[in-house]
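Sequence, structure tokens passed on for absentees:
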Amino acid sequence: MKKTLAIVLCLTALVLIISAVATGINLIFISMRPETISVLNVMMGDIVLIPLLLALAKICFNKGRKMLEIRSNTRVSKEETL
């Protein structure tokens, strides 16, 4: 069960990174439009959203990786005791 959760966390991190890249591309496309208040609001929102997505992706990836390492280390330690 923990291995499945770890894999899900790593995949979630991948989806979050893809979302951050897509938001960055969207920010580039929006910056080419004429400046209006709605365009500026979207740009400010994207500027806030991208670091939050990357931070959450880093947290998910690190937690998933640690869960996978713990799972593999416990298996090795059980084999050593036999």
Notes: Helices lie at 2-31, 37-81. The mean pLDDT is 88.
